[in-house]
Write a structure and sequence with these properties.
Layout (H helix, E strand, L loop, with lengths): L8 E6 L2 E6 L4 H7 L6 E2 L6 E2 L12 E4 L2 E5 L10 E3 L12
Parallel strand pairs: 1-7
Antiparallel strand pairs: 1-2, 3-4, 5-6, 5-7
The structure holds FE2/S2 (inorganic) cluster.
Protein name: Molibdopterin-dependent oxidoreductase YjgC
Keywords: Oxidoreductase
Pfam families: Fer2_4 (PF13510)
Amino acid sequence: MSTNSPPQTVTVTIDGAPGQAWAGQSVTAVLVAAGIWPLRRNPVNGQLRGPFCGMGVCLECEVTINGRPGSRSCTAHVTDGMDIRTHTEPLPTAAHG
Ligand code: FES
């Protein structure tokens, strides 16, 4: 690919909705550009979390990519047909009886 070629557009699915991205963009960049932040909840205390380090160290950007949970969105690059799922839904509450 020449450096003068226009970027290739790919189609992705974000939380079930179709979207467009540039091939090779980080998944974090695509999500933030789409106005999606935070990306997940802390499974222990339920706090909403989002990208912090941007280099694969903090794990705050984990999403599910193509059915693979725990994928670091900051180090993953979008490809055509990629399915991206965030995890910001409230944690289930324990039943008290
Ligand atoms: S933002 Fe820290 S691992 Fe992705």
